[in-house]
Amino acid sequence: MQSHDDHAHGIGHRVGYASPEEALKAPREEIVYVASLHTGTGVDEPDFLAVVDVNPDSDTYGQIIHKTYMPNKGDELHHFGWQVCSSACHTNLNRQYIVVPGFRSTNVHIIDVMTDPRHPEIAKVIPGEEIKRKTGLSAPHTVHCMPGEVVVISMLGDENGDTPGGFAVLDAKNFDVLGRWEARPGEIQFNYDFWYQPRKNTLISSEWAAPKTFQDGFNLQDVQEGKYGHSIHFWDLSEKRVVQSIDLGEEGSIPLEVRWLHNPDAETGFVGAALSSAIWRWYKEDGEWKAQKVIQVEPKDVEGWPFPVPGLITDLVVSMDDRFLYFSDWLHGDLRQYDISDPANPKLTGQVWLGGVLQPVYMNGRKLEGGPQMLQLSMDGRRLYVTNSLYSSWDNQFYPELKSWMLKIDCDPDGGMKLDENFYVDFGTARAHEMHLPGGDCTTEIFQ
User: Fold this and answer.
1) What is the model's pTM?
2) Dihedral through CA 44, CA 45, CA 46, CA 47, nearest 10?
3) Least C-beta-crowded within 10 Å: which of 242, 291, 301, 417?
4) Where do the coiled-coil regions begin and end (predicted)?
5) Who's near 107: CB < 8 A, 6+ residues apart?
């Protein structure tokens, strides 16, 4: 692997951005790719990748201008990522393909978005059965490109949907399934999201549960029986082994999305504990990784609920300049912005209400069903995009009348947020999940 000094001076073919400072100057996005699912909705159609027009000068602003349908039904498109990005900087590959797994089917779709960015085409489908056979894993979640021209995918279950999960590796050149990433499979029981920091030789992973536990809906008894995770794990990136795990306990139940600061020298980041509705910060001190709770969203009593309703923090994103942290409370219905200039002491600087179970929320006379869920932030930190589907069976359980949308929040660089009431994307019979920008974004780009 070449040094970050070589990287900074542009030696070799570079994909993406040399630094967060360079990424901040990226051109404004004109389209957004959105994973859109019919799985679990009762509509007998395939899932699709939506192309949404986000250029305010366009006649089709705020509309789906293209749908790339998957060849099979029942995939449940969820999270996706690039085959190469800023961390895979020295390569002859171009940023041509996005890797789009089916969370339920384990099929992995390779979609060409470079040839015609507004009309993506499927270039290859890796059957789920092949992935299960070659890795012993299922339920692909987070996709990250990594140095060495490989794509690594967190897998939440074994081939039968039980634990332990692990990580699958694809060749970024031809998308062959190369096997497992971790040196000693089985070191972790639960898996979910992951991020890595090359200069610190560290990868961090989080925990949800076995697919068999969550795929049919949420049962509080499963939490009491220890079937949901509450730990984060730190890996030696080069040796691909766990070096330290931190149990967050009851106050860190179901730690989902992890976001390291973008500064490649940073030794801190944040994880959102969904069920506990807490944000934890990890950091290094005296040679050891530590974690502290820095934000707590208190539960609320709601008529008809057998227990106080948690905020349910389901997604978070850090601005490219490491100034702001955003997260969504899917059940409460609020989206929050915190100043993290001092990561140990986040300060609330903005809050908007976009649905939820606490009270009805309307936009231009239209009720916002569901609550804010997936988030994506523009490189310059001015525009925050939001969708409202979490996972099909959980959608059906908590928001049985869910009508899916994508919204846009205008973000003040000095703090504060405002809903753009002229932007509302109607997904019709489908549900919108993760979003990515064509040139990379705040949840895909990692720097050497």
Assistant:
1) 0.96
2) -100
3) 301
4) none
5) 70, 72, 75, 101, 125, 126, 127, 128
